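tl;dr need the bound structure. longer version: we got a ligand (magnesium ion) that a collaborator sent over and nobodys looked at where it sits. i said id run it. heres the input, straight from their email, havent touched it
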Amino acid sequence: MSAAGHGLAPVMSGIAAMVFDVDGVLTDSARVHAEAWKEAFDACLRAHPPADKALDRPFDAAADYLRHVDGKPRADGAAAFLHARRVPIPDGSPSDPPGTDSVAAVAALKDGMFTRRVRQDGIEPFPGSVRLLKALRSAGVPLAAASSSHHAHDVLEGAGLLHCFVTLVDGDESHRLGLAGKPDPALFLEAAARLGAEPADAAVAEDALAGVEAGRRGGFGLVVGVDRAHTTDTARDLREHGADLVVDDLADLLRAPGTDPAPGPDGKE
Ligand SMILES: [Mg+2]
């Protein structure tokens, strides 16, 4: 059956495989990251209050998250926030156990809290993403997830989406295979190869600028930028970095309700 017959929008016709980023594309996991950071940072601020009282206030899961943490590797995010608040603790080492006495320990504390939240509470998938995955699967399009996060497996499992994917190239796999991170296309190319698809015949969905750039550099046939931020510049930035089209929600890749997928009397759709 044609892509249209499965409720997919015309732009999806000819797509033989699709690769999805995870956080922010399939699941609302950025919010959970922010909550776990707040728990870890606030514990640290209570244990080691900054001498400057103007800096002694709880972590703001919206403003502080965006300014200091979002999109950064975990260790860099922890250092950026704790240094900004002049919290009097050493940087520590990556082998530090979870705690509040070094920057690395706080990063490890956040990591454990994030994992526990995902396992206990689950993660909410975006409903529009679920609808698209369902339509693609019913059209027989093989799907892969590709994320540099080593939590991607737990996130997809918590969201009840893991079964949708033929393969997952996550942070652990990326490390094992020595793949360069986005904006290098290595993760996406590995995912497409596992689906047996040429990149030119495959689509990528991404919400990060580095991710759409990776899609473009990988030669993917369709690079979809997912704009969750809705700032004045996000859609433009996604396009400039390589998105062929930008959507607010992955359900935008479905045929609009009421649209007749059958050819009209003049033979045109
Ligand atoms: Mg993302």
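gonna send this back to them w/ a short note. The first helix runs from residue 29 to 47.
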